[in-house]
Amino acid sequence: MASPMVRLSGIRKSFGAHEVLCGIDLDVAKGTTVAVIGPSGSGKSTLLRCVNHLAPPTSGTVEIDGESVSLGPTASKRQQEAHLNRMRSQVGMVFQRFNLFPHKTALGNVMEGLIAVKRMPRAEAAEAAHAMLKRVDLAGFADAHPVRLSGGQQQRVAIARALVMQPKVMLFDEATSALDPELVDEVLNVMRDLAVGGLTMIVVTHEMHFARDVADQVVFMDQGSVVERGPPEHIFGAPTLERTRSFLKKIIKS
Amino acid sequence: MPSFDLSVLLPYVPEFMRGLQATLLYSVMSVGLAIVIGLAAALARLSDIAPLRWLARGYVDVVRGTPALVQIFFIYFGAPAIGIRLGAPTSAVIALGLNSGGYLAEIFRAGILGVDPGQVEAGRSLGMSRTQTLWRIVLPQAARLVVPSTAGEFTNLVKGTSLLSTISITELTRVAQQVVSVTFRPIEAYLAIAVAYFLINAVVAQGGLWLERALRRGEGLR
Question: What is the mean pLDDT of residues B19-47?
Answer without folding.
Answer: 97
